[in-house]
Specification:
Length: 126
């Protein structure tokens, strides 16, 4: 696969078996305000079509979202270099959906758990 568009099409059709519309419905990019994510903006099927037809190149956010979704490196996606695939045990969108369904108390509890895991990981790495 020599072009970015061919790689995206291959990942979409062969790996995931999705139409452009189905893929678009699963993807969104972060909207930032003062370096904080304040919202997510959907990626349209038209944008994906333009990428697959090599009419446009993705911006950084779209490249990251696509690489995460398909479980490939950004280098492989953009340049076609043969890097090993990365494994993503928990899809970012699933995590976003999970957190969106939690109460403020549940979110605070999850934050405490994550911070404790970070402290233990730092302590173990010393």
């Amino acid at each position: 696969m020599s072009s970015l568009g061919e790689r995206i099409n291959h990942l979409r059709v062969v790996r995931k078996g999705l139409t452009l519309e189905q893929l678009a419905s699963k993807l969104s990019i972060p909207v930032y305000q003062k370096d904080k994510i304040v919202d997510y903006k959907p990626i349209t099927s038209g944008t994906l079509s333009n990428l697959e037809n090599n009419k446009h190149r993705p911006n950084v956010d779209i490249a990251i979202v696509l690489s995460d979704f398909f479980g490939v490196s950004v280098d492989w996606l953009l340049r076609g270099e043969d890097y090993p695939e990365k494994t993503i045990p928990f899809d970012r969108m699933k995590l976003q959906d999970l957190f969106a369904s939690m109460t403020p108390e549940q979110l605070e509890a999850q934050e405490r758990i994550i911070n404790e895991m970070r402290r233990k990981a730092l302590k173990n790495s010393e």
